[in-house]
Amino acid sequence: xxxxxxxxxxxxxxxxxxxxxxxxxxxxxxxxxxxxxxxxxxxxxxxxxxxxxxxxxxxxxxxxxxxxxxxxxxxxxxxxxxxxxxxxxxxxxxxxxxxxxxxxxxxxxxxxxxxxxxxxxxxxxxxxxxxxxxxxxxxxxxxxxxxxxxxxxxxxxxxxxxxxxxxxxxxxxxxxxxxxxxxxxxxxxxxxxxxxxxxxxxxxxxxxxxxxxxxxxxxxxxxxxxxxxxxxxxxxxxxxxxxxxxxxxxxxxxxxxxxxxxxxxxxxxxxxxxxxxxxxxxxxxxxxxxxxxxxxxxxxxxxxxxxxxxxxxxxxxxxxxxxxxxxxxxxxxxxxxxxxxxxxxxxx
Length: 348
Description:
The protein is of the alpha/beta class. It is built from 9 helices and 19 strands. Helices cover 24% and strands 26% of the residues. Helix 6 links the parallel strand 15 (242-247) and strand 16 (263-271). Helix 2 crosses helix 3 (191-200) and helix 2 (154-173) packs across helix 8 (301-313). It starts with 6 loop residues before the first strand and ends with a strand.
């Protein structure tokens, strides 16, 4: 345990209860670790799923938050990629072995590293808990902290660390390019960024939503087409009009038969959201229409660096609403009630 240093944070002590102040002693600063004074942290849907036990009971008390931005205030003696004073961001992962003999890490799949540690609700090999960004400070492996381009503000950088990297990673993996027809389902925290990244690649982007009032905003973000799912005629007209369909909505009411009909032969459906219930799919549909379905987790080191560089170059920015960290429960309620366009960012 590290002497008398204590970090003040906001933790969930039980499922579906308001977050309360929490104080913890951080892990000792290792040779490759840095300490970050947090300025901002985005609220991700995963935070809500975790504190509400949608994906199983977390290790209470749990401090969530994996869209972290702040200033490096301490650095271990082996840190060479960062320096005290640097503005950095941290996403959904804080450690992987990065070994050349690691099948996952050696193929830029470090989010799947068997020794990997997620930013919160996880444990390090020494048994210490990993605590997230709803806090004043955090300590992480320096390889999982990324310099924020000067063009991007701290508050705007926060959602890029998870939401941005999550939507851009499958675009990189599937080598999406200019002219590809890309649909985005769910125009929220992930979806509004997916539109911008796909547009930045030169793709023809179709936004798909049950909210007709989002059409104008989607156009401004870069979508050339908009499908309102409440109008069956629009979906019928758009059949087989997409090469890729990125699903960012975790709604239990998602109609995967409808979504699949929008994808052309040999097209791909990519899941980025995880509903709390299992999907009901028709194998015959996918076989007869020669449509593929898969998923993508989060971005690793290579992908997060690419995300930040691409966002800076193409002026991709999340639309955010800042809320004081002390009002974290107000921010969480805004997300629960769907009142945010499109990301709440907590601010110290």
